[in-house]
Amino acid sequence: MKYLILLRHGEAGFSDGVDFQRQLTPLGKENLNRLGGILKAGEMKVDFLHCSAATRTRETAEIIKSYVEIGDAEYTREIYEGNLDSLMRLLEHTPREANSCMLIGHNPTISLLLSHLTHESYLGLKPGMMAIVELEITDWSMIGLGTGTLKEVLE
Fold first, then answer.
1. Where in the sequence is the domain holding 92, given as residue range(s)?
2. Number of domains in the chain
3. pTM for this structure?
4. Which of 21, 71, 130, 144 is most buried, most CB within 10 Å of its CB?
C-alpha cells in the first residue's frame, strides 16, 4: 500500500505577464500555515516530494516543509507544463522505497489526477487544498486509473 498526497499550491497573486513567477499572497501563506499546523498535529511524514518548479509551488513546499518531515524532493517544470499523462509518468518513477509521496502542483491537472486515480467525480481542488489518496499498489509503476481511494480532504 502506498499513499499519495496531492496539494494544490496556495493562493497566488496576479502577475505582469509571467505566470511561472507568481508568488503566494499573504492569505495564501496564512492558509498554508494553518494547514501545516493540522499536518504537524497528525505527525504526517512524507518519503518523497514531487513539486512544480514554479515560484508559488516552491513557496508552498517551503511552508509545508516547516511542519512536515519530507525526505527527498524533486522540483520539475514538467508539473507546471504537463498534463495528466506526464504526471502519471512522473509518479510511476517515484523511488520504489517511498511509501508516501506528495505532489504539489496546479489546476486543472492536479484535480484531474485525483479524479483519475480514484475513478470518482471531479473534485476541483482550491488553492491550498490537499487530498490524501490511499493507493492499492505495492510499486509506483502500478499506479493507474482507479488504483486509489480518497481518504481525506484538508484545506
1. 2-12+22-154
2. 1
3. 0.96
4. 130
The H-assigned helical ranges of 82-125 are 84-92, 109-118
Which three three-digit cell numbers place residue 31?
A: 492558509
Asked if the structure places residue 37 within a domain, the reply is: yes
d(CA 81, CA 69): 27
Amino acid at 60: T
What value, to the nearest 5°, has the Cα angle with vertex 32 and ends 95 and 4? 25
CA angle 110, 113, 118 (to 5 degrees): 130
- pLDDT tens column, 50-66: 999 999 999 999 999 99
- 104 in helix, strand or coil? strand
Provide the greatest CA pair distance for the chain: 45
- Report yes or no on 17 lying in a domain: no
Residues present in the chain in total: 155
Bridging pattern class, strands 130-135 and 148-154: antiparallel
CATH code at position 36:
3.40.50.1240
**Of the candidates 13, 108, 9, 111, which has an alpha carbon nearest to the alpha carbon of residue 50?**
9
Query: pLDDT tens for residues 1-15?
Result: 999 999 999 999 987
